[in-house]
Structure formats: C-alpha cells, structure tokens
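Recap quiz, item 2
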Amino acid sequence: MAEEEKKRSKLEISQSPAGLEGPGFFATSLEKAVGLARKNSIWPLPFATSCCGIEFMATAAATYDLGRFGSERLSFSPRQADLLMVMGTISKKMGPVLKHVYEQMAEPRWVLSMGACASSGGIFDTYSVLQGIDRVIPVDVYIPGCPPRPEQVIDGLLQIQRLVETESFRRRDSQEYKDLMNKYGIE
Amino acid sequence: MTTEENIKSLHDTVLAKLKENFSDAIVSSDVEYDFPVFILKREHIYDILKFLKEDAELNFHFLTSMCGLHYPDQKGKEFGVMYQLHNMPKNFRIRIKTFLPGNDLHIPTVTSLWATANWMERQEFDFFGIIFKGHPNLKRILNLDNATFHPMRKEFPLEDGTREDKNDSMFGR
Amino acid sequence: MSETTENINHPVAEEKEYTTLNLGPTHPATHGIFQNVLKLDGEKVMHAESTLGYIHRAFEKIAEHRPYNQITPLTDRLNYCSSPLNNMGWHMTVEKLIKVKLPKRVEYMRVIVMELSRIADHIICNSIIGVDTGALTPYFYVFEWREFIYEIFEEMCGARLTTNIGRVGGFERNWNEKVWQKLDHFAKEFHKCLTEFENLLKRNRIFMDRTIGVGPIAGDRALEYGFTGPNLRAAGVDYDVRVMNPYSSYEDFDFIIPLGTNGDTYDRFMVREQEMWESYSIIKQAMGKIDRKENLFHAEVPEFYLPPKEDVYNKMEALIYHFKIVMGETDVPVGEVYHSIEAGNGELGFYLISDGGRQPYRLHFRRPCFIYYQAYPEMIKGGMLSDAILTMSSMNVIAGELDA
C-alpha cells in the first residue's frame, strides 16, 4: 500500500545521507545532515528590479511553483534570508544599495544572479548601468537569458541547492573566503 | 477623425491667433505628418503657452509630452525644447519647439501651468542641462545627484567606460 | 517650580515632530524599485518625496545608437508587463514615418496581440492589488491565465515576456495552427476565470473597505498631472487613444470605455477589470474578422521588411533588399513623427526625429508611468501608510517605464 502510494504521488522525500544505521540510531557527519536541511529550506530574498522580477513572479505562481523546492517562503528581510536572488538591471545608483543588502545578510549566504543584466549588464551597455553585479558582490550562480525562463530559474535554484548541500563548514572561515570578501571590501 | 484638412485648418487657426498676439515670436510653422509644428522664440514661450492654454477656442489644457533636443551643428541654437499640447474634447494636437544657444541654456518653466511639467523639466535638465528658470525643485532625477555630465548631449559616449573585456577589432572599429 | 509642573501636565503646543520613514528602494511592498521618503505622524502620511532613477537604463541614449529594427527589443523592456503593446507602438511609429499602409488582416492580428497583452498587464496589476490587501489566492487563480497568454505569445514569436514581436510592416511569420487553437481556448474559457477572480474581490467587504476612498484624485487634477489610461478614466475622464486617434483599425471594433467616478483605488481596480472584459470582447471580434487560412502577415514593403531566407539565397532582388536593410542603406525619410498608442498604463508615445540616417536622430518616449507617478505624494497625503502601498500598486507604476 505504502509503495503504491509512493508511486502515485509525485512527491519525493529527500534521501538521508550515507551513514551508519542500526536499531534506534543513525550516525552520519553533522555537515551532511545540516547540508540536507539547509538545502531544502532555502529562504530567498527576491531583489527584483525589472523584467526578470515578473518572470520570477511566474516562477513563484501556481504553474511553476517554487514551493516544490522548499523556497516558497520569500524572506523580504535580508537578515533572515539565505539566498539573495538579484533579478533585473542594477544601475550604478542601485549598486551601493545592493551591496548594503548583501552586507545585512547573515552567513552563510549565497547569491544568484538572474538574467543578462544582473550578470553582465546585458543589452544595456550604458553609462548608467552596472556591468554585472559581480562588481559589487560575489556571485555563486549565474542564470543567462533575457529574461530566463522559469525552468532556468528553477535550474539555477537547484544549482544553488547543490552548492548548499556540499558546502564545508570550514569554507566561510577559510582564508580564501576572507580574501574574496576583502576583494569586494566587505568585512 | 483628424484628416489632413483638419490638421491644416488647425495649423492656420493657431497661426492666425499667434500672429495676432505674438507676431514677433514666430520663427516658422509647418505641418509634420499629423502635427502642426510651430517654432517660436524662447523669450515669449511662457506667455504663448499660457495663452494657448487659456484661450477659449483653442484651450490646450493637456501637456502630453515635452523633451529636449540637441543639434550640435546648428550654430547659435544648439539646444531645443519641444512641447506637445493636446485639447482633448476637440482633439487638437500641436507641437511647439523653441531653440536655445549652447552658452545660455535658460528657458522659463511651465510648472505653474501644468503640474506634470515638474518631472519632465527635471528629466530634461538631467539629460541636457537645460535650466528651467523658476522651477520649484530643479535637481537631477534619473542620474546620481553628484553626476557631472548631461548624458543625452550628442558628444557624451553611450557605452560604459569601465568595461575591459571589449575588443574593438571585434566590433569593426 | 509651578512653571515646570505646568509644563509637564500641559505641554506647550510646539511644532509636531514627524517620523521619517524611508520606504524603498528595495521595500518588498513597493513591487519594484521605488523610493519614497515619507514623513509620518503616527501612521498618517504627512509628506512624501519620491526618488527615482534606480533602474535608469538610458533607453533614449541607446536608441540614438541603434538601427530602427534593433530598437524593438528596447521597447520590450519599457513596460515589461505588456511588451507586445510597446513593440506594436514602435512599429507603428516607424510605419507612420515611412508612410506604409498595412493590410487589414495584419492590423487585426495586431489588435489581437495588443489586447491579449493588455489583459496580461491588467492581470498583474489587479492581482497585485489583491495581494496588497491580503488576498493572495486570486493572484494564483488569475496568473494561470497570464501564463496561458505567455504560451500564446510563445507560439507566435518564441518568447514569453520580452517578446520582440512583429516587424516594421507586419509580423515576422504567419500564425500557425497551434496559435489559433490556443486563441480559441482562450476565447472560450477565459471568462470563467475572470468571473471567479471578480467574485473573490469585487464585493468582498474587506477588499472594499481597504480600497474605496483610498488614494483618490479628481479628474481635473489628474489632467493637470498628465494622467492617461485607466488611472485617468477611473477619475472620470473618458480619454482613450484607441477612440480619440484610432490606430491599427480600432475604429472597426465595438467596445466601450469604462469610467470611474472617484478616482480612488477601487475605481482604478474596477476600470481595469472592465477593460479586461472589453479587451476580451475585442479579441473575439477580431478573431471573427480574420481569415485563418490566408497567408498574409505583412505589408508589401520590400525596402523595409526583410525577405525570407530562402529567397535571399535564390533571388537577386531579395538579396539586394536584404543587403540594403541589414547594412542600413535604405533611405528613411527625414522628418519628425509622433505616434501614441493606448498602452497598459496610458498614452505611450514615441517622438521620433529622423535625419535620414539608419538610427533615429532623437527618440523620446512618452512614458505614462513617469508622468503620472509624480502625483503620488499628493494622492497619499493624509492617508495611512498601508493605504499608500495600495495606492502605488493600483496606479500600476512599472519601474522599467518609470526610469527608462
């Protein structure tokens, strides 16, 4: 019965990480357990500025349903967000604001750059547009497209999930990471 | 329906009215596609717009749009301002242009006639550096407050100067 | 001594101190990049100042450096909720400049595309008003149909949101069987969803209490501020470009202009709602007027409309035209032209000055959002902070159009 139920339902329960299992106990490394938990409950902060924001609305709406990936809880407060989703053109006037938002986020934090404008300035190679947000903050995943389709956004989110799942606890304390932050002038 | 004769007759009516009241302010007038266009001297621009708005017959009560122009090759009238007026009940639309010399970019504001001119004038100030005399809050609107340039002037480059990844030979230049 | 106690008990009337609140530029409730510095007395908005330019992308400057056909993708990104409307407006501007007359079939096809995107635009605005009053459900219902409209656009041109649909002189290809199937489905089914959506909000006590009398503007004041489109009609002024200066054969269609009376949030909502019904009816009328089998989708203007690729390879004339268009050697008349269409938010105008070159000498966009958003401080003055949010979403201010 349970097997049949499982077959019919499209829901998938995430697999537990490799570990030692016995009657009444299960042992695995903490890193893996935390990675699993974090991966499936990413709270994104939608930093939507323009067209890509509308496509993100479509992604969050019923047809594509971001909730399937545990990210339906949009956190509009940067202090509670795990993932900064930058969607749309960031102008030079907006750059400092974006950096400020990023600085307010607590570690560990990830950044997703959605669309050509956020990734590289896109078709707006002009005096007023920031030529890619990686000039002010570090980016983990770029999604190409102008605007990307919702499927691409979901793919980008899955890439982030992979990063979140496999990230080592020590990464954020490493010298390499500190150097990266210093490069952007972020303490 | 606005047909060609209607536009022509509107042009003639407005021109006659302007000639009657501001005979020395008219530089030229024409019909461009479906718009009567009047090029006027800037000294009288405020009075003329006020007259056009308040005249009982014409009553151009709606400022549709307004923009700045830049013709670097026209000596003595490098910059221009274009106004488009609309009388909705009668469906009269006209365009008014005026030109300014590059070394004296002053033009009276029309914010007291149309509240909507406020941001339009700020935008043209931002883009071209045209100074609208008497504007209540003339500061930059789209660009950063401390910007030193007026981007819509023809000599200002479009592309962002900080890019290093562009190889000019790939763009054929 | 007595003086101090008196002061404590009856403080001297002094100038009130207001709280300054920085609403934006990334405030979640503003749906976009708008900054308003508010002065609050408790929850009452006493003064507001808008700052804009946070996504200024220099459309007008780029337009001076691009050939005519490359400006279409720019117009997509003006009001990105209804890109096809902007595309069509731009094509018509160029057609007016080069004096091209389109066949009726193409004009009706355009009408269908434009009205579909008007519905898509109003769906966003109205469902967001719902979200801001705390009703998230209608958004999910009605967004499914926006998704369906995306699918129709995808069949027509390959893109969902930033469509770049059509060319100067017509469409880039004829509509296939699937487009017609989808349109038929839309014509048959959409009214159910819209009725349902209306039932959820229209006579909903909470929704009415939140929206009636919120953010009102009188008709004459709205005209002063240059309002156009649904926001002006909500204030009781029956100005619609489709009727006043018909383009693309709108005079062949039978529709009404819905009007409000108070110009408040509820009226704006209802005007948009009614406009969706009118657009729905226009689409159905236009579908009835088109011969689906006919293979006519652009005007005969070989100097401006790119020939099909197989002709370019096999026919000398087509190759010449292809070369001329791509290299920008076609003569464009010198002149200046203004064309306006009724876009989702009002009169979207294109003021184009051509000096005969392959790029416009100057292109000015009359962006309805930019023009009517300046009335916002006046509209929210004296109201509650939460009403200010609602007023903004009911005005449907789109950041891309606002900042250009």
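Helices of chain B lie at 4-21, 45-54, 117-128.
Chain B has a mean pLDDT of 89.
End of item.
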